Amino acid sequence: MTPDQIQAYAGVGTGLLTAGVLWWEIHTRNRERRDAEAAQARTVVTEVRPGQHTTNADYDRTLHEYLFSVTNHSNAPILGVHLTAWVWGNDGMDEPAAGEDRAEEWTDFVPPGGTLSGAQYLAGRLWQQGEKAPLEQIAVEVVFTDAAGLMWQRRDNDGPRRFINPTIPTWRLRIRDRVKSWFNRLRGRELSR
To answer: How far apart are CA 9 and CA 83, in angstroms?
Structure first.
């Protein structure tokens, strides 16, 4: 091996090592930023308890009462709270179904330390003879906006996930921001990079 080859291999290795360290640093900083953003969202918890009442639906199916609550344990309010609960797992579906299998509660505001509570009647797709669905089969999902204006989604008190409004495609927002930035640079309103 000639010294030039050794130097070329060393340069490539150094470049790869630098790229790897840079990627790791960016990844770590993004993870820390996401963790800081989710601080308030982790303090919003849901709870399901069985109720005492039952009722019959129009088509002779027994609906059982369940008590739902969303509690804001943070020191800032949460806004636009939407709670959805449903019986899952009966036919392999993990998403809410329409009709009596889904219950919803929502409010505009839950203060710090406050609770959104409600009682709803649910019946699972396999519990049609009056059997009560076990609490493990009740899925609860809450979507809310935190004090920083970020929308979050939590399902069964799992870790919070950022909720992006599906009615506005993110690619359209990115293109709009780039076009605005480009025009602002042309007009001299933005510092050149």
So the answer is: 58
Counting the structural domains of the chain, the total is: 3
Instruction: Note the pLDDT tens digit of each residue in 79-130.
Output: 989 888 877 655 555 555 554 467 778 888 899 999 988 887 776 544 444 5
Strand order in 115-122's β-sheet? 44-56, 62-72, 115-122
Instruction: Give yes or no: residues 108 and 93 share one domain.
Output: yes
Query: Model's pTM, two decimal places?
Result: 0.66
Name the token pair of 19.
């790229």
Q: Which domain holds residue 6?
A: 1-37
